[in-house]
Amino acid sequence: MIDEAFISFREIVDKLLDIPGDFTDEENGVHSYIYEIEIGTPVELDISVDENGKVTIGSIPPMYRVDTSFLPSYHSVTIKAEKYTAPEHGE
Amino acid sequence: MANDNKYWNLEDFVDSLVVELDKTRETLAIKAINKPLTYTVKDLAIDLNIFPTFDGDTIRFITAQPGQQGASKVNIQLGSITDQQVRATTKISGLKNDTKIEDIGVDEKTRNKLRKMGVNSVDDLQQVEKRQVDIQRASDNEIDYKTLANQIQKSRRNMTPPKVNGVSLSLDDNKRPYLHVKGENFTLDPRYPPVTVINNQLAEVMEFNTHEVKILLDKQHITQHESELIMTFDPYTLVKMNIRI
């Protein structure tokens, strides 16, 4: 069970990669798009283990931007992503 | 951070990470229908602040809590691989005839020792044997190979137990009486011919194969009372039945 402040690792990845990668300059007739991107971010992790040893990873980017006496332990995630091309039929 | 911070195995952590990434990929194809420009994870690196612990057998980890100093850094990098590459570089597990080491009833110490040597199935063990590796010596005599080999044979025999379908009384060409036992999976290993005992007396086996055994009878075997027939087909198989001859 993940702490309610955290979301699944899959959601973090989905949200980080949900970017508008298209840049269109209609006036000059130029169309660009991002074909590869690398994103690095500190994250807090909540790693829970059930009775069978199954690990569930909960994560969240830093929530507060204030200095506190006890700072959260920030781990780091770097994702390199590329433009998704749907596989050809039958692959 | 949740309060129930627990120790975890690196293998389970990476498994979970991979499952999460797989789920991301699964939804990607659907997402791409309405959103032509979508992105797929090519590589992922994760730096963890953790404290390791060693219990004498396995190393486990716990994530650093807020304010905790002196944590170790572990950097995990996951690359992507195509299914064709997976097929080319990975041994297929769970083959129909392959038996996992944990299924043959070996003790935990032996199982762990074998796992550390990369032996997870009987097939793995046979591959090691083919290369003339002395498992007992390689494990500093911690694995008793003779016992292990016996357990494997026993486990295999359990998967194909003998089955008696019928017993009948017949006469051979010399008019000698014999018991004709029919069934399945009688003698599977040619090194071990069957041994039969009737009422605590050894009885001669005339013929045998996987489907039948012919047992020569003496006069003393033929009584009006119930007789006990015991047949062994190898060191792991014993069939006992009561018959009236």
Explain what this protein looks like in three dimensions:
- The complex is a heterodimer of chains A (91) and B (245).
- Chain A is flat.
- Chain A is mainly beta and 91 residues long.
- The model of chain A has no long low-confidence stretch (mean pLDDT 85).
- Chain A has one domain (7-24, 31-82).
- Helix content of chain A is 9%, strand content 43%.
- In chain A, the strands form two sheets. Chain A has a four-stranded antiparallel sheet with strand order 1-5-4-6, with helices on one face. A two-stranded antiparallel ribbon of chain A has the order 2-3.
- The termini of chain B are far apart.
- In chain B, a hairpin with a 2-residue loop joins strand 11 and strand 12.
- Chain B has three domains: 8-89, no CATH class; 101-159, no CATH class; 163-244, Immunoglobulins (Immunoglobulin-like).
- Chain B has helices at residues 10-34, 83-89, 108-116, 122-130, 135-138, 145-159; strands spanning 8-9, 39-54, 59-63, 72-79, 163-171, 177-184, 195-198, 201-203, 205-208, 212-216, 226-234, 237-244.
- Chains A and B meet through helix 1, strand 4, strand 5 and strand 6 of A and strand 1, helix 1 and strand 2 of B.
- Strand 6 of chain A pairs antiparallel with strand 2 of chain B, so a sheet runs across the interface.
